[in-house]
């Protein structure tokens, strides 16, 4: 596809035609000028009347104002969830399932609207919000809807009871999808929820609140409170919460773990990553190049499981690098709403600054930086696809999570060396292996300390598969049958 697109663009240039952008229309997409907190089935103003701006990172314009929940609002939301808990637990499990099916169907019905808002608010290409984020969010609700009345099969011979109220905190890279990952299994197991979306991307969570309202979910079963880090902190510290589910940075994850020590609250932490994508000499090189591109440039590299370190076997380094650079030059960076865009806007000014700083660090450490030859818009937060060669295992850009479209490239000679390098970071979330030999896949993946490993593919997600990390990438698993464990006491 990408090759065809590049060929089409070349053809257009050669004939003196101009390349026509194809932006998705925003007609009939409703974004209110101001959003309140969703507590006990209603939208209510925050007690202190404070709001924050939600910005479109592709043009730096304000999209809407979103309420900031203070401790008193968090308290209201938790109390609403506590009050709703008894009724929700008593409901026949198959009835709970019906609500989840209803939400799943409505997410599908309103898919176009949700995809456009996700791209406007967060900067991701419309192709990805439309084909990945929104369908997967619906798939998560469908999947856990099916478990609601089958917990006895999930836990044979055990009595699976809900935990009570789950406090859930999510990041900005997959806003609606992360909300689905959190809410669906919690409700299926009979818990009620208070969810806090990330500051820069609250809009699709608020649209989900509208959907939940339209589905007539009993009031208080799901509460969505927007705000900053302090809102998340107040939620974690609230005595009425029985479980904390957090996805975000390792730094905040560690702070949450400290805050929860000794409280008896259950928790799951899905944190950062620095995955190695390992390419052996016997791999199908063109496929591997596609996997490397997808691994690091999907969602601007704002992916916890991004293949942000390429480990390539020495013999194919030159040919692979040549192909990789050519392929990078076909990537279109720009308007997230354009259906041809491959790489959209960096999610926020803060993240934009962080990535640019890592580019400086990489250069100062002696890395050899190469960026694609694309043009980027002069307004908005955009970074060209970037690779670094001549980096050391100890380089900061090899060890630290950049969370942007920046790939570090190292070589190896033997499988043992690849494994050693792959495991040598504080993280352990994911990894990729590219080889023609099945035996090598098993040999290498078995020795990688990572929760999710793909072979001859990358960044494939499915609600049935467990997801989670080792080491500083977190604890507990989400997704699949494992994802139910996090929301029950046995
Ligand atoms: P973050 O700064 O840790 O924020 C995550 C969420 O926590 C946001 O809603 C944030 O609110 C909130 N928060 C901030 N400080 C808090 C505190 N002291 N107590 C409670 N909540 C607090 O992470 P991010 O920058 O949004 O997301 C990027 C990180 O998430 C990356 O490191 C990435 O690897 C990780 N991530 C991991 C996974 C996974 O499944 N393992 C998936 C996606 C992302 P504000 O938005 O208001 O700051
Ligand atoms: Mg925004």
Brief descriptors of the model:
Aldehyde Dehydrogenase, Chain A, domain 1, binds magnesium ion, 6-stranded mixed sheet, binds NADP nicotinamide-adenine-dinucleotide phosphate, Aldehyde Dehydrogenase, Chain A, domain 2, 7-stranded mixed sheet, 490 residues, alpha/beta
In a few lines, what is going on in this structure?
The chain has 490 residues and is an alpha/beta fold.
Number of helical runs? 17
- Widest beta sheet: strand line-up: 14-15-16-13-12-18-19
Tell me which CATH architecture of the largest domain applies here.
Answer: 3-Layer(aba) Sandwich
- From the alpha carbons, calculate the radius of gyration and give it in angstroms: 22 Å
Explained architecture:
The chain is of the alpha/beta class and 490 residues long. It folds into 2 domains: 25-271 and 473-489, Aldehyde Dehydrogenase, Chain A, domain 1; 276-462, Aldehyde Dehydrogenase, Chain A, domain 2 (3-Layer(aba) Sandwich). The protein has 17 helices and 22 strands. The strands form 6 sheets. A 7-stranded mixed beta sheet has the order 14-15-16-13-12-18-19, sandwiched between helices. Strands 9-8-7-10-11-21 form a 6-stranded mixed beta sheet, sandwiched between helices. α10 links the parallel β10 (243-247) and β11. α5 (126-147) packs parallel to α7 (175-188). The longest helix has 22 residues, at 126-147. The mean pLDDT is 96. Bound molecules: NADP nicotinamide-adenine-dinucleotide phosphate (NAP) and magnesium ion. Residues 169-173, 196, 198-199, 228-229, 232-233, 236, 247-249, 252, 255-256, 270-273, 304, 401, 403, 429, 469, 474 line the site of NADP nicotinamide-adenine-dinucleotide phosphate (NAP).
